[in-house]
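Quick board copy: two proteins, each given as sequence then tokens.
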Amino acid sequence: MRVSDFHFELPDELIASTPLPERTASRLLVIDAATGACQDRRFDALVELLRRGDLLVVNDTRVIPARLYGVKESGGRVEVLLERLLDAHSALVHVRANKAPRPGTRLWLEEALPALVLGRQGELYRLRFETTEPLLELLERYGHVPLPPYLRRADTPVDRERYQTVFAARPGAVAAPTAGLHFDQALLQRLAQKGVAQARVTLHVGAGTFQPLRTERVEQHQMHAEYLEVDSAVCARVAQTRAQGGRVVAVGTTVVRALETAARSGALQPYRGETDLFIYPGYRFRTVDALITNFHLPGSSLLMLVCAFAGREPVLSAYRHAVAARYRFYSYGDAMFIHPAQSEARA
């Protein structure tokens, strides 16, 4: 397969640059993966679409204010985007500067945070922040919300709340699991009252989620690594749901990758560690029966995962419908609910 097989035309004006006033006011494109049929709904229609006995699995990662601006000792401007915390004072980061900083270079970030460049690890830099206060606390005070590059704007105070899910609990992500942005507590309560159970996994989304594939052939792409945790309670919930005839409904591609990583041995098992699982058409799913997801970038690994789940042609046809119907795209955009997953793609 070629990366070009997953491209579609998207007018710039359909990229949602800001969130809607209410989380659940987003539109929801409902897709029957078996037939390709589409329905235009509102996101709160999930109360009708989900059934008693279904299990909604969400990602409880919390986005940290991971972008910092500053200068090098030489005076040159620098932008730092954290990829991963290593300990209370060190991190792996992306650095944007006119000249790559060498080991031993000091950076002054946000006029209050001195940091020492320790070295490189692939495309990333290892920084040690020369402060006594833990880095997470400093980021909350000085950092900027790491909005995706395609929004083409600076973060605002609104983004502190809205580029965060209502179930965010565990700091570590530098990008939001955007399918979860559509839920509010009232909707979660209505689903619970209907008998839809909820389980939580953690996958700390990295900045690599926005990186384009750099190979012509899909199969040659190497995914970036992200940290995840799936505990024994989640595994038990999934097993119980399926035994009772319910559906495992993944809220976002990050949940799919977390569950499928934990099931790579053939059965879902507790897992804690990194994953570089790349899901594209031909992949055999083991744990997920339905998917809630936002609209993704052309040629992206996220779009390929959705195509693996529901079929390339049905998904691209649905995307063309969404463009014609003026859906809002990407992180602050509208969502899709895909069901049932193709039976031949299930173990």
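And the next:
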Amino acid sequence: MNTVTLYTTDTCPYCRSAKSLLASKGVTMHEINIQREPGKLEEMLTRSGRRTVPQIFIGDAHIGGFDDLAKLDRQGGLMSMLA
């Protein structure tokens, strides 16, 4: 299974939704909390080009935020990306 990386914060409801969706698929995630590790904000910006959380990566592929992840799942592409 490809590695799933999420950049999150403690207070973000979309981060919780993304983690819940991925957990429902049995996915183990690598979470990087940019509130607890402020230096990781720059890493997230460099990788994604975005300032909002969550930012989700499957392997090296940037998925985007929760809405993008949910759309990918609805369209049936999430499980194939995870394989």
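Board note added afterward: The first strand starts at residue 4 and ends at 8.
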